[in-house]
Design a protein that fits this description.
Blueprint: H1 3-11, E1 17-20, H2 23-32, E2 35-38, H3 44-54
Parallel strand pairs: 1-2
Pfam families: Epimerase
Domain NAD-dependent epimerase/dehydratase: 1-49
InterPro entries: Epimerase_deHydtase, NAD(P)-bd_dom_sf
Amino acid sequence: MGSAVVCELLEAGHQVVGLARSDRADAWLTAAGAEVHQGTLDDLDSLRSGIVAVDPGL
């Protein structure tokens, strides 16, 4: 889940958007203070839309 990385980034003041592939991951990311993008690693359209939402210039 990358929880250690998410926590380190949030503690350093970064905005984090995490890819949640399950309701459990969604709940954990939300509780940690990260934004959530629902999707899977093999859904390229979902990944692209998540990237564009974070950086519209890409």
